[in-house]
Design a protein that fits this description.
The protein is mainly alpha-helical. It has three helices and no strands.
């Protein structure tokens, strides 16, 4: 079945130019994908060693960040417990215990991870 519908907005020269442009873009993309494997290929051991070095470099910074977050959460929690205690609310003990437990958990987790990975 032949399609006899012609678009009044696209001239035959533009249609041919569009087809050539599409073909060239497709070939360029194919060429880039074909060469991507050659560009990104590296030794597996070298990549693992590089990743290990990068993680070790960021680990102490991450632990310091965890301690800083714990300090901020601890201060906010202490203020919350102090306000509840002064207001005479009955669940002050539970809030204080959960606040203290979360602070201890944060410090213990950072220390255990450091000792587990030997950093």
């Amino acid at each position: 079945m032949k399609n006899n519908l012609k678009s009044p907005f696209i001239s035959p020269k533009r249609s041919i130019a569009a087809k050539w442009w599409l073909l060239s873009v497709t070939l360029i993309c194919y060429e880039m994908l074909a060469n991507a494997g050659n560009v990104l290929a590296q030794d597996g051991n070298a990549g693992i060693q590089q990743a290990t070095t990068m993680v070790q470099g960021y680990f102490s910074t991450g632990c310091t960040l965890m301690y800083a977050i714990g300090a901020v959460v601890g201060i906010v929690g202490a203020i919350k417990v102090y306000q509840k205690w002064n207001a005479g609310e009955p669940d002050t003990g539970k809030v204080a215990a959960s606040w203290f437990g979360s602070c201890i958990f944060l410090v213990v987790v950072a220390t255990v991870i450091k000792s587990f990975f030997g950093l």
